[in-house]
Amino acid sequence: MTTPKIDIYTKFACPFCVRAKHLLKNKGASFNEYDITLGGPKRQEMLERAPGARTVPQIFIDDVYVGGSDELAALERAGKLDALLGD
To answer: Taking the domains of the chain in order of start, what are their residue ranges?
Structure first.
């Protein structure tokens, strides 16, 4: 299988971001991290990809919107994350 493209939008010192990244790293998944602490074009990009999203992290796997840290953890608990990660 091919490795999925994972994008995660984060902010500095965000514990939910740390938790989500830790889960992805434990799964052996590589990801693109975009720090939007100071706003900028990546923050606008996140808002366009996830309209209404105001919190971080915001996670996308192969351009499919996953949600935040809680949603990522729920996928793991349900046994559905591995399939999204190509395992």
So the answer is: 6-84
Nearest Cα residue to 18 out of 3, 33, 38, 6: 33
pLDDT digits (tens, 9 = 90+) for 69-82: 999 999 999 999 99
Rounded CA gap, 65 and 84, in Å? 11
pLDDT digits (tens, 9 = 90+) for 13-61: 999 999 999 999 999 999 999 999 999 999 999 999 999 898 999 999 9
Cα gap 36→86, rounded to integer Å = 27
Which residue, 17, 51, 48, 50, is CA-closest to 34? Answer: 17
Please choose, from the candidates 76, 77, 45, 74, the residue with its C-alpha nearest in 3D space to the C-alpha of residue 58: 45
Which architecture, in CATH terms, is 6-84? Answer: 3-Layer(aba) Sandwich (3.40)
